[in-house]
Design brief:
single chain; 265 residues; alpha/beta; Rossmann fold; two-stranded parallel ribbon
Length: 265
Amino acid sequence: MDKSYPKIVLLTGATSGIGAATAKVFAKNGYRLILTGRRMERLEELKQKLEFKYGTKILILGFDVRNQQEVRDVVSSLPDDWSAIDILINNAGLAKGLSPIHEGSYEHWETMIDTNVKGLLYVTREISPGMVSRGRGHIINLCSTAGHEVYPNGNVYAATKFAVDALTKSMRLDLFKHGIRVSQVSPGHVEETEFAVVRFDGDANRAKIYEDFNPLKSKDVADIIYFVASRPVHVNIQDVLVMGTQQAGNNHIDRSGRKYDQKNH
């Protein structure tokens, strides 16, 4: 960790999966954390657990990134000693549905666009001016392999993640002259998250998509996010594209069994 000044991290979507795993690795390494999400009881539980185990300071904020006014109100009311955010991790995101374009759900489309694109924009718009005024900061966006390669029935989800990729690149062009690093991490399939359950509207059987291959785990992605964030200030890792060994791309997965379970290696 760069010790040149105290580091405050704001992490969206911290209540589960990659977000919760990322909160843990940053807490373990002594960062101050602002954890956000819609489920306050989950945030409270995570705060108590991490503060007890690692002794770090944590502020929790319950809001929905899709609500522009909520985002503005929460950020503008941050206590003075929490307002100088050094690292913004735009992790909140989701997939809804897996249908061909002619059968897609308008509701699913709106939810993905509002969360994955507009939510990222709202939070970034409120946090980045402070980084510009201080002449330092780091924004890390959670993209996806779906932001680099489409797959059947992934149409609107892929479109939102292609948008994240484009926004990351354009944000970097806007902000690098202010000393702000902009990075993204683009994982493939990841288990230990709620991604599949949310995509299939809580259908646990349809969400069993990892039984015949080894995907990444949420901790794998969290470790990469931490690595990106903890490089010296003259280093900006612009994009990390990461998949499990059995995944060569979104359309190429070796589903011949879980070959790399830890118990077998």
